[in-house]
Amino acid sequence: MLTKEKGVCTKFVQEFFMKNLKGACILGQSGGPTSVINASACGVFLEALKHDLITDIYGASHGIRGILNEELIDIRQENIEELELLKTTPSSSIGSVRYKLKDPSIDDTDYKRILEVFKKYNIRYFFYNGGNDSMDTCNKISKFMQKSGYECNCIGIPKTIDNDLVMTDHTPGFGSAAKYIATTMMELSQDACVYDTPMICVCEIMGRNAGWLTAASALATYKGFGPDLIYLPEVVFDFDKFINDVEECYKKNQKVLIAVSEGVKTKDGKYIPEALGEMAKDSFGHAQLGGTAQILADKLKNHFKCKVRAIEFNLMQRCAQHLASQVDVNEAFNAGSMAVKYSLDGITDKMVSFKRVLVDGKYTCEYELVDLSLVANDEKKVPLEWINENKNGLNEKFIAYAMPLIQGDMKAPLEDGLPRFAKLKKILANTNR
Amino acid sequence: MLTKEKGVCTKFVQEFFMKNLKGACILGQSGGPTSVINASACGVFLEALKHDLITDIYGASHGIRGILNEELIDIRQENIEELELLKTTPSSSIGSVRYKLKDPSIDDTDYKRILEVFKKYNIRYFFYNGGNDSMDTCNKISKFMQKSGYECNCIGIPKTIDNDLVMTDHTPGFGSAAKYIATTMMELSQDACVYDTPMICVCEIMGRNAGWLTAASALATYKGFGPDLIYLPEVVFDFDKFINDVEECYKKNQKVLIAVSEGVKTKDGKYIPEALGEMAKDSFGHAQLGGTAQILADKLKNHFKCKVRAIEFNLMQRCAQHLASQVDVNEAFNAGSMAVKYSLDGITDKMVSFKRVLVDGKYTCEYELVDLSLVANDEKKVPLEWINENKNGLNEKFIAYAMPLIQGDMKAPLEDGLPRFAKLKKILANTNR
């Protein structure tokens, strides 16, 4: 009993202490761009500016590397108008990174350096915005701080167009990318059928293991202007079935629009460029993988002897802020501001997660917390029961899931007919202290 | 004197007659899609509906081929709400075609067939919407009708994202494509610089002979978020100079964003895939040309040993109605309605052309007329004095020219967060008459 009471007492003292931490906060952006990463940054910075407990506000230049290199952008020196414009500025304005921290039990050099920098700048609030790799980074840093006895509330903010994070209904960035993909598919369906000659068009969409983004093209089909066939990495790709599927559609009016994930694999577990492509070699003799869409288009051209186009949605699908979903922008912003609020409440070692709640049948989002360790390095795929019987499209369950996430428009204000993005000064904090 | 007076008299009678022609009108859409071709169709149809002289209103299914095949869409059977939605529906809703009429002095079969169909349906107003090839078609039909003594007012309506028509300040479709290219370039500039590692990105933009679209990427540079280097087909492409240009930019921060026209040619007059690509062969042994951006990206990768991305703007640049310029949509609509008004005034054998007029320094557009024969088969290029000294960018003259054309937003109304495009019934006119 005594132990337990002592435990409770210690926990109380610790929580009280963690709750009234006075110090600086820092945000790091990590992983691939989305249209709304900066909306989360905007949420963090504007919320942090409201609280006296938070002294300095830093942006880590290029995520964790900015901390290791002691390159901390002093956010208090930015104009508030520019910080507000971050809400509608795509990509990562303070710079992103792909950096995997080592297991601290094997090599804790980076962790010690991070602790050193945190101590030097009295950083007591650490926010890390990214996908599952980034949540792993956040989790490792959080655990190291705890182990070191350094009070610092660490909160992960989800982000990824791939929508593959577990323990959250969806991720910020997905709704806007889905809106881009569905809208673009609708437009392409108008373009691809314009002539009275046969036409097959293969569109390649991002997503190495999870097919959420490719599935979003089904929203266009649902509206009557979308792809005839959709292939996700969740289903083994069979080339003969693919040709049969296309033939079925081709019979109707010689127009076929196809959406395919870059991540589809054959039954041998090979990506299309490995399985079907003629691998070119670069000057070093390295194999160069062609695009999935281009390889499939070439195969279809040989089979159907008609015009076949390959289209890669490429980087546009992850940075087309002009097509951002209002729901997505607002949720990303809220994820950032909630992270600050929770951290000031003494919360640490958690990721902000999204819970879908229907109020009178209307979609709303609530912001909950999940253990970082449960999110790190896991991934969520499209449920197989949301895929149609023919394994080449999505059913109404996916539509019901995705449709609320693409609602509304929230793009950057226009200046001269073009987006007015945030222009940050990015003045680094003085390292002499 | 008598002859001259007789001539004047005949002209008067003829004009009076041409002015009070009672009969059907027909619109054909021809050539590659733009975001605003249907806005011109909307202008034609809504204007035609206002006038008692115009009996039936037809849309030629797939342009001139619809006339030859006697597939005439009966526009009076469409819902007015759907016709209004054409204003913000991309591509060619009644179907486009690439069909080149023969010289009538060599083979007038098609012309006779067209005349036959015109007579059968009492078509007295012919509108053809397209680029320079289509204006050639319109010109040939116009001349044949005149020669045959069949009264039919023929008016061309300009259209092309390429902006390469002569005798007009600009063409409908260019402004929206330019806005797409500039906006997308701004977004890509945010994406391409996100990591702290070197990155070169080569974007390929449409335009086989004229560089207007590629030049539009300079609008992004003007706003501070655009390509560092821009290569137009108006300038001979020199690979060594290209590498030097990239090296100059690369020195600064190892981030280079490049816009290149698919139409750039080396001094031998070869396109990049011919000059630098390793031409693959398809199963028939035909040479397959790779993309210009991909080939240049591969060369840069070998030279700089860093990450290099190739991005093709592909079909999106010509059908991204969600980024349509309001100026462009309205001008395209007006070009259509003015064509109807002019034709009812007895005008024939002309194309509606755009004249830029500055009123108190503010851009406005006036709708004039030019002879079809002057427009047909000619093309307008970017003036060399609008290109910078280094031949890898545009100067302020281009910015002043292009900026007014991309102003304002006019996209399709949203339904479920996605565009609501026109849905036409496309009921064909009864061929038994």
Describe the protein's topology.
2 copies of one chain form a homodimer.
Chain A: H1 2-19, E1 23-29, H2 37-48, E2 54-60, H3 63-68, E3 72-74, H4 80-85, H5 109-120, E4 123-130, H6 132-148, E5 153-158, H7 174-192, E6 199-205, H8 212-215, H9 217-222, E7 229-231, H10 239-253, E8 255-261, H11 272-275, E9 280-281, E10 287-288, H12 292-304, E11 307-312, H13 316-319, H14 326-344, E12 350-359, E13 362-371, H15 372-375, H16 396-402, E14 414-415, E15 418-419
Parallel strand pairs in A: 1-2, 1-4, 4-5, 5-12, 6-8, 6-11, 7-8
Antiparallel strand pairs in A: 2-3, 9-10, 12-13, 14-15
Helix pairs in contact in A: 2-14
Structure description:
The structure is a homodimer of 433-residue chains. The first copy, chain A, is an alpha/beta fold and 433 residues long. Chain A has two domains: 2-167 and 322-376 and 409-419, Rossmann fold; 174-318, Rossmann fold, CATH 3.40.50.460. Helices cover 38% and strands 19% of the residues of chain A. Chain A has 16 helices and 15 strands. Chain A has helices spanning 2-19, 37-48, 63-68, 80-85, 109-120, 132-148, 174-192, 212-215, 217-222, 239-253, 272-275, 292-304, 316-319, 326-344, 372-375, 396-402, and strands at residues 23-29, 54-60, 72-74, 123-130, 153-158, 199-205, 229-231, 255-261, 280-281, 287-288, 307-312, 350-359, 362-371, 414-415, 418-419. In chain A, the strands form four sheets. The first copy, chain A, has a seven-stranded mixed sheet, with helices on both faces. In chain A, strands 7-8-6-11 form a four-stranded parallel sheet, with helices on both faces. In chain A, strands 9-10 form a two-stranded antiparallel sheet. In chain A, helix 2 (37-48) runs parallel beside helix 14. The first copy, chain A, is elongated, with a radius of gyration of 24 Å. Mean pLDDT of chain A is 93; it is low at 1-9. Chains A and B meet through helix 7, helix 12, strand 11, helix 13 and strand 14 of A and helix 7, helix 12, strand 11, helix 13 and strand 14 of B.
